[in-house]
Prior knowledge:
The protein is an all-alpha fold. 93% of the residues lie in helices and 0% in strands.
Amino acid sequence: MSDKELYIEKAKAKIDQWNAEIDKMKAKVDEAEADSKIKYQKQLDELREQRDEAEAKIKEAAESGDVAWADMKAGFDNAWDNISSAFEKAMSRFK
């Protein structure tokens, strides 16, 4: 397995973890009182947006050629770090 394939698999595993967290948060939203529900729904939407952005980056990386991957890896790392940070920040507001 190439470095690119390993990298993409690791990123996909992280998104799977985020999907599980989103599912847990969705359950909290469903159980929340009306006032809290609005706040939680907004945060849940933000989590989904971050996850969708991460999935788009993974798709972009997967579709790149090996030469292009070498050139874009640094940019992908930076984007991934920003997305991960935003996701974790949004998750912390749920707890």
